């Protein structure tokens, strides 16, 4: 399946202008849009391959197993690995909680 999405000229012009580049030739703007689209598609494909290469979680119930086989969940780790192949390092913040007991079982809280 091939998904074709065109990046609008206005969006490309906005980010080019934001970086200090201006060109009156719309062909150049569209060339940048095509290159950007190719880059995003390559990264998405590589991230999907990373996701498929990850070991599947252990499932005990047959119904759960059938549901798990149908769905792939793309994680930030998959995307980070794919982007690192292109020289883009992604650093995302770890999960922070308001208090140490946030997310814990109410019975195990010591308040």
Q: Would you kindly provide a written description of the structure presented here, covering whatever features stand out?
A:
The chain is mainly α and 111 residues long. The chain has a single domain, classed as Histone, subunit A, CATH 1.10.20. It has helices at 9-18, 26-53, 62-70, 76-84.
Please trace the helix and strand order, writing H or E for each element: HHHH
β-strand percent reads under 5%
**Low-confidence residue ranges:** none
CATH class: Mainly Alpha
Task: Report the span from N to C terminus.
Answer: 54 Å
Largest sheet: none
Structural class: mainly alpha
**From the alpha-carbon coordinates, what is the Rg to the nearest angstrom?**
21 Å
Helix fraction, binned, reads 40-55%
Please, what is the oligomeric state? single chain
What is the fold named in CATH at topology level? Histone, subunit A
Main location: nucleus
Subcellular location: Nucleus
Family: Belongs to the TAF10 family.
InterPro entries: TAF10
């Amino acid at each position: 399946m091939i998904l074709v999405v065109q990046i609008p000229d206005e969006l490309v012009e906005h980010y080019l202008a934001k970086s200090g580049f201006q060109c009156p030739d719309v062909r150049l703007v569209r060339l940048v849009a095509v290159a950007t689209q190719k880059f995003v598609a390559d990264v998405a494909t590589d991230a999907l391959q990373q996701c498929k290469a990850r070991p599947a979680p252990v499932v005990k119930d047959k119904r759960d197993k059938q549901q798990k086989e149908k769905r792939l969940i793309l994680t930030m780790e998959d995307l980070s690995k794919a982007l690192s192949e292109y020289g883009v390092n992604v650093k995302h913040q770890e999960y922070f909680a308001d208090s140490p007991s946030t997310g814990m079982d109410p019975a195990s809280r010591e308040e």
